[in-house]
Amino acid sequence: MQLDASDLLPVREDGILGDLRMWPDLELPHLDRRSKVYVWLPPDYDGSSDRYPVLYLHDGHNMFLPRASFAGEVWHVDRAMTRLAAEGIEVVVVAVPCHPELRGEEYTRYAHPEHGGGRAADYGRFLLDELKPAVDDVLRTRPGPEHTVVAGSSLGAVVSADLWASRPDVVGGAGLFSPAFWWPGEQALADVEDAAVTRAVTVPGRVYLDVGGQEEPDDPEIQQRYVLDAERLLGSLRRAGVPVRYVYDSGARHVEAAWAERVGPAIAWLLRGSVTAV
Q1: How many Cα atoms sit within 13 Å of 184 on the Cβ side?
Q2: Taking all residues of the chain, what is their mean pLDDT, rounded to a whole number?
Q3: pTM (two decimals)
Q4: E strands in 11-147
Q5: In this predicted model, which residue has the larger pLDDT, 198 or 275?
């Protein structure tokens, strides 16, 4: 995969803070589709020679632009990153929209018996073996795993955990917002637990993990799974010695507005730590 920084188009939208750009129509290797890819650049990126850590976000259409989002709500990542930049935490953000109809396919390694899935390996090959090297070639990044974070919510959190577990050579930190491990099931969670034991003595990185008490209020069984699985993973990470920050918000629902509240502090914790120390 080859990219050209000159093809990054400015995104001009009322309310957007900072320098948001996009590649408008990229072929995504291994995924058999095309997509926009959004890039948010730190203040004074064009006027400096600094290199920056990179945050890769799934569900990129929900990160910045209400008109492009699933339900008209976004994470307001531009606002969060602008605040962090003012505190001296500067990062390049790369946000990839999901497949408009096959999100569950790309974000899970194991299929749900009713809802399908199972192409996370293809997604990982695209993101880490194609997109990331291409981004590193054309933007001033810090390419090592200690400067690379992946993050997402629900199934986006599941695939972030999968990438952190399976690719320690590339991914140093993971932000897991309301992970939906109920979809891919026991094996997906066990894979991350097993990887934590190995990573703790090699390249532990960092994990941010959260869950809400109202993720699925109309489905008590699924709601219980959100909390129990998050707390099970928390225990495994702690026992393994992996640095982890955990947030439980008893009133939080499974919506973009909830993740928007938590994303700034989460990324600050990930980037202030050993993952992206410079």
Answers
A1: 29
A2: 93
A3: 0.95
A4: 19-28, 33-41, 54-57, 92-95
A5: 198
